[in-house]
Amino acid sequence: MKVVVVGGGIVGASSAWQIAQRGHEVTLLEQFGPGHKNGASHGSSRIYRHGYADDYFVSLAARALPLWQELESMTDTALLELTGAVDHGDPVTVNPRIDALARAGLEFEVLEPAAAHMRWSGIRFDTTVLYHPAAGRLHADRSVAASVAAARLHGATVEYETPVREIVGTDVVTDVVTDSRTYSADVVVVAAGAWTSAIAPHLTLPPLVTTQEQPAHFVPLASEVKWPSFVHHPGAVLKTVGIYGLSSIDGVKIGEHGTGPVVHPDSRDFVPRPDGVQRLVDYAREWLPGVDADAAEPLTCLYTSTPDSNFAIERSGNTVVAAGFSGHAFKFAPAVGELVAHLVDG
Ligand SMILES: Cc1cc2nc3c(=O)[nH]c(=O)nc-3n(C[C@H](O)[C@H](O)[C@H](O)COP(=O)(O)OP(=O)(O)OC[C@H]3O[C@@H](n4cnc5c(N)ncnc54)[C@H](O)[C@@H]3O)c2cc1C
């Protein structure tokens, strides 16, 4: 089967890998160059974790783990470092995650805040602390590049600087129109992130809202301190919004989840809002004794969110769409690619 994948972020690249691995003739079309910073998948770090209350997401993370490891060995690239992950904060939010990890048979520990601080001295902990070791950080840019490389190893063609202008005909054979040529496909996969509704207006999707998010990196004060990936849930001691964080080669990254301004992906300004940066500085000063809170290096990135933060992965005619990843899909990407490949196969 001829399959065209529109979008070379982590979801399109993972899908191209998984579909090509099943023997299909895959062309991946990306409007920008390799490693571009205009979408959702760039940078040095993303959290990988199982810490969800919903069994489906726990199982999707579990499915992704061996696929990440397969990708590492196939491309001889280090992608995933298992540093462990911590959820802390309001027990109303943390306890269902403890229950879900128990149901899944995953290893975890529940600690008192003081015991957790003894172990991870860079973080001050709030109320209930859940730790699970099968978690950590992915290198984002390397993961996208490795997924593209895996697709190519299985025969995929990858075209950069090739914006898809139109998808024509959605029943039997579809034409995918670019400036230089038209590709004909048996199945088209739309993995276009914030641009999904623009390129696939024929699809019925949940409303997708694009926001410009702005995490920041902070310099750690001591290189020997260990950092798990962490999510601080609001409601108990923390009275502001929740915060996620992890260490990376660029420092300790923290961010609010989905609080950025609504933007259009082609006309956003890439400028972090000072009030949002100030909130991260205030958080670091209060909760992260292991970083220099005065030296924030903000960056921007896009979320494309559905109303309930669940994903839109579905098939309509011969179009498969994978969108609405709501700021939390990187960890699952190879497993999402596998779901997309199943939809391509019918
Ligand atoms: C700041 C930030 C932190 C995050 N942290 C985490 C985390 O810790 N853990 C986690 O699991 N997830 C995290 N996420 C979420 C995760 O990164 C995203 O869910 C994921 O990257 C979405 O990937 P995507 O491929 O759908 O979108 P994108 O990466 O945006 O890819 C879409 C691609 O489609 C291309 N495209 C669009 N239209 C066209 C067209 N017409 N023709 C050709 N190409 C086109 C775009 O150029 C783009 O490259 C974070 C996201 C952000 C922004």
Notes on the protein architecture:
By secondary structure, the protein is of the alpha+beta class. It folds into 2 domains: 1-79 and 138-206 and 308-346, FAD/NAD(P)-binding domain (3-Layer(bba) Sandwich), CATH 3.50.50.60; 85-133 and 209-305, D-Amino Acid Oxidase, Chain A, domain 2 (2-Layer Sandwich), CATH 3.30.9.10. It contains 8 helices and 22 strands. The chain has helices at residues 10-21, 55-75, 91-103, 113-119, 140-153, 196-199, 274-287, 333-344, and strands spanning 2-6, 25-29, 46-48, 80-81, 85-89, 109-111, 128-132, 136-138, 157-159, 164-168, 174-178, 182-185, 187-190, 209-213, 216-220, 229-233, 243-248, 251-256, 291-298, 301-305, 312-316, 319-323. The N and C termini lie close together (12 Å). The model has no long low-confidence stretch (mean pLDDT 97).
Main sheet strand line-up? 6-7-5-16-17-18-15-19
How much is the average pLDDT?
97
CATH homology group of the largest domain: FAD/NAD(P)-binding domain
Broad shape = globular
Oligomer: single chain
| Terminal residue distance | 12 Å
The CATH architecture of the largest domain: 3-Layer(bba) Sandwich
CATH class (first level) name of the largest domain: Alpha Beta
Which percent range fits the helix content?
25-40%
- What would you call the structural class? alpha+beta
The CATH topology of the largest domain, please? Answer: FAD/NAD(P)-binding domain
